[in-house]
Design a protein that fits this description.
This protein is α+β, with helices and mostly antiparallel strands and 117 residues long. The protein contains two helices and six strands. Strands 1, 2, 3, 4, 5 and 6 form a six-stranded antiparallel β-sheet that branches.
Length: 117
């Protein structure tokens, strides 16, 4: 059975939310392109010349604020289920965007610092 995409209103909200976050945190991007297919949201970074760079894939869990995370691996030209810096395989769309952008834009400063004890 194929997975269902979130409702259109949720798709619109996610696009708006991610683009707003990117404007505030990732000025080197002109935006985030979000495509939906079979229960997944595919996030591409848009550079200022509008070249898309695949970042990650979010898995719809049925909850607007919690999504599964898979990082894009250029070496495989595909997505690999991954943990976010929090150590969890699920989190907010902003956490996923920050994790992927931190990797692909070489700026991990948004990743939380792990505890030292």
């Amino acid at each position: 059975m194929a997975r269902k995409n979130p409702p259109e209103s949720m798709q619109h909200h996610l696009r708006h939310r991610l683009n707003e976050h990117a404007r505030q945190r990732w000025p080197q991007l002109s935006g985030v392109q979000v495509r939906f297919r079979a229960g997944f949201a595919y996030l591409d970074a848009l550079t200022h010349d509008n070249e898309p760079q695949p970042l990650c894939r979010l898995r719809f869990t049925g909850v607007l604020h919690t999504w599964g995370f898979a990082i894009y691996l250029a070496s495989r030209d595909g997505y690999q289920d991954s943990a976010l810096p929090s150590g969890l395989p699920i989190g907010s769309p902003e956490e996923a965007l920050d994790c992927a952008c931190g990797l692909y834009l070489a700026d991990p400063t948004t990743w939380p610092t792990p505890p030292t004890n």
